[in-house]
Amino acid sequence: MRAALGALSGLVTGASALAVAELAAVAVRPEAGPVNAVGGAFIDRTPPWLKDFAVRNFGTNDKLVLQLGILALLAVFAMAVGVVALRHRPAGFAAVLVFGAVGAVAAVERPGGGPLDALPSVVGAVSACGVLHLLAGRLTFRPSPAAEGADGTPDGPSDGTQGPGAAPDGSFDRRGFVIAATAAVAASAGIGALGSRLNGSGAAEAAASRAAIMLPTPASPARPVPAGAELRVRGLGPFTTPTKEFYRVDTALVVPRIDAGGWRLRIHGKGVTRPLTLSFDDLLRRELIERDITLTCVSNEVGGPYVGNARWIGVRLADLLREAGVEPPSKGGPADQLVARSVDGMTIGSPVETVMDGRDALLALGMNGEPLPFDHGFPVRMVVPGLYGYVSACKWLQDLELTTFADYDAYWVKRSWSRRAPIKTESRIDTPRPFASPKAGVVPVAGVAWAQHRGIARVEVRVDGGDWHTARLAAQHTRDTWRQWVWEWRASTGSHTLEVRATDLDGYTQTEKRVGTVPDGATGWHSVVVAVT
After folding, report:
1. Cβ proximity of 484 and 446 under 8 Å
2. Half-sphere exposure of 161 toward its Cβ, with a 13 Å CA cutoff?
3. Strand pairing partners for 459?
4. How many CB atoms lie within 10 A of CB 263?
5. Contact between residue 475 and residue 228 where contact means Cβ atoms under 8 Å apart
6. Phi, psi of 78 (to 5 degrees)
7. Quick one: pLDDT at residue 142?
8. Phi-psi bin for 9: left (phi > 0), alpha (psi -120 to 50), beta?
9. Which of 52, 164, 327, 449 could link 331 by a cystine bridge, Cβ 3.0 to 4.6 Å?
């Protein structure tokens, strides 16, 4: 009984620490909270195979799973601390302070962190020591009369352990513990709610700034999508991915909420003769272009879901770089890498030659007719056709630095991914689904293929390793977008394996060889097994 209450006291102590830390983070930033800081440190140190496992199995919920895992470990640790404090209270205090130190160090070492980022974890740990002292004290055994000295004071140990002559188990202050624990839980709930509300006040201002934005009519609108670009086959998604369904893969445990009014972008570095500092309104006043562009994440396994097509509106990145005096390496420029920095410290390196070669590389302000959603980089993000997102698609952008690949390794390059990563030619079967049971007869086999900035020339399907059959392609919109396809299969009963491959407009046919996503994207033919009835 007493041990169980000790574990409960540890849980209450842990909850109070997190609540106080949440309130203290108001004075710094939400990312400085211990759960976010430790979670961010874990992500930074995650090996590529584990990152791929998380993305593959949990998808866009990978961060939620990580946070729940951290809270579960914290709960186990807190219960152990509570039990330890019953026997030796100083050891319990020491364990709490160690945990606070871990959170403080993790917060300080996060990108953009500083000494003040340690404040939430430190304050939370100190307050937790007070709560632990209060609760553990209520679980200390009361000495029996036989254990009292002539002056009426207890003869047993003063550290809260059960000494000779102490009363039998159960003679601690149950009522006092219940009252103290209830008060601590109520106070923690109130403090945590206040901290959450105050931390969210900046988010409310950011939301208001986004709601007030009216995107201008672009000077160069996107071409109309051809009527035949969407095949309208059951099980095949739309040509333009709805914003709410667009994939999200990043490292942000806390999605940055930035007030567009205070946002600034700095362009500087090697070869920059005219450094620029731009506001959001500065970008809105420039010539805007609108383009349909398909994005792909390098973590997308063969046949995976992390590819989507959207209509983006923004400013040509090459125009801004030229205004800053930048020349590509082919014209004598000293910088071959453009490092984009996010407000959360993420760094992404793109080849200068690529973003200035005439393709529609954008600083995007809008997505599918609206200002960027917060999850997708509001107020400004990069979009570069033909490059995987980890070398091009920096969200929550705040800084562009011209440098060289020899001088600087961006975030993912330091974690075993390639410096340069053009998107590979790939294809996917969307219908029928794996292990589906279609009826014998004509079965539409359909999906999408992509080879951004090259375009798709041909898609082929085969059954059970037989001959390849050419699929019917949807109308091509641009070479920067994916292309839908369909093949009418005369299916016979039994189990069958369907495979697909694509050929791009450069004449390259995707390889059969299966390779994982590390270091520069997966390869292989997507296959689906079905049972025709």
Report:
1. yes
2. 9
3. 502
4. 21
5. yes
6. -65, -40
7. 63
8. alpha
9. 327
